[in-house]
Amino acid sequence: MAMKRINVYADQEDLALVKEAARRRGIPQAEIIREGIHLAAMANRGWDEPLNWPTFAGTAEPATKDEIRDQVARRADR
Q1: Mean pLDDT of the chain
Q2: Which residues, by range, are in coiled-coil regions (predicted)?
Q3: Can you state the percent helix, strand and coil of the chain, rounding each to 5?
């Protein structure tokens, strides 16, 4: 992926944290900042269509220990 240089203003305290994290991880400070930009971009991403998440039938009641044990046993028998 091609990168573009930008100028960003940041608090000194945040920059000190970035510097320390980069030192601990043994990577450039720029990599920490790129990761932060990516996380911010993904957190604010939007989709044109709603996500199609699977749904599950059930009572919405928590499973009991016995129900969980029975399901695990059934899977182990396969």
Answers
A1: 90
A2: none
A3: 55, 0, 45
For residue 4 the two structure tokens come to: 């573009």
Distance CA 42, CA 14 (A): 20
Greatest pairwise CA separation for the chain in angstroms:
59
pTM tops 0.70, yes or no: no
| d(C-alpha 37, C-alpha 8), whole Å | 11
Q: Which burial class, exposed, middle or buried, applies to 32 when counting CB atoms under 10 A from its CB (0-12, 13-18, 19+)?
A: middle
- Tokens at residue 31, please? 């990599």
Residue with tokens 């039938």: 57
